Amino acid sequence: MIYPSNKFRDSGFSLVEMLVALSIFSVLSLIGLVVLRNFVDGQFALQQADTRISQIQLASNIVRDDLANAVIRPARGILGESGRYFDGGVQSAIFGADDALLLRFVRSGHAASSFDLNTPNIQTLNYAFENNNFVRRSYARPDATDTTPVLSQTLLDQVKGMAIRFRVQGNWVDGLQSIVGSRQSLPEFVELQFVFMNGEKLTRVFSVGISG
Fold first, then answer.
1. pTM attached to this predicted model
2. What DSSP character marks residue 113?
3. Using CA atoms, how far apart are residues 55 and 154, in angstroms rounded to an integer?
4. Is a pLDDT exceeding 60 seen at residue 72?
5. What CA–CA distance (Å, rounded) separates 123 from 105?
6. Mean pLDDT along residues 20-36
7. Are 175 and 100 in contact (CB under 8 A)?
8. What residues contact residue 187 under an 8 Å CB cut-off, 6+ apart?
9. What is the pLDDT of residue 181?
10. Contact yes or no for 113/120 (Cβ under 8 A)
11. What's CA 85's distance to the chain center, in Å?
12. Distance between CA atoms of 200 and 184, rounded to whole angstroms?
């Protein structure tokens, strides 16, 4: 009878060696999984940050263009009130004051008037803090009523609170309800302050009525 030599019997892995190898493989796999997860989380965080930056930049550009084209033109409100041409909300000076009207004014250069002769060149705009959103409302006609079509656009979301103030003749004030049609002036600057849900803060200052 021929027995296998020790050379062939000793050529395999022992149980201990196999367990050590599996343990090392498991540790390496776990490390790889953690690295991959961190990479994916990092990419997601960067994507969210890019999205927020783009949103802030777009909102800033829209507000800057609107305020740069602000004009002195009284406009009737949806409740029939008239005489005011640039309003700013005192009630919005407290962070977290929800559903607050921040701005109401008339601007020229309505883009739709370029291709629709029935659309006036001026339009009434409202900016509001509503349900944790910074919202822009544009009315189809400058003298709006409760039946006037209005386009509502959320410029920024996840906003915890807002504040607004105005630079008038070198002084900062919280409200502009005193500026009416008989007073031919606009504020020099508008400052908007935002506090987001994640605790981050943002302040933007815009010039008023500088276009043209």
1. 0.69
2. G
3. 10
4. yes
5. 8
6. 74
7. no
8. 86, 88, 166, 167, 168, 176, 179, 208
9. 41
10. yes
11. 26
12. 38
Q: pLDDT at residue 168 above 70? A: yes
CB atoms within 10 A of CB 194: 21
Parallel, antiparallel, or unpaired for β 189-196 and 201-207?
antiparallel
Q: What is the enclosing helix (H) or strand (E) of 24?
A: helix 15-68
Dihedral Cα 152, 178, 120, 65, nearest 10 deg: -60
Domain 60-207 has CATH 1.20.272.10: no
Is the model's pLDDT at 90 over the cut of 60?
A: no
Tokens 């802030």, located at residue: 56
DSSP string, the chain: --PPPHHHHTSS--HHHHHHHHHHHHHHHHHHHHHHHHHHHHHHHHHHHHHHHHHHHHHHHHHHHHHHTEE------TTS--SBSEEE-SGGGSTT--SEEEEEEEES--GGGGT-TTS-S-EEEEEEEETTEEEEEEESSSS--TTS-EEEEEEE-SEEEEEEEEEETTEEES--TT-BTTS----SEEEEEEEETTS-EEEEEEE-S---
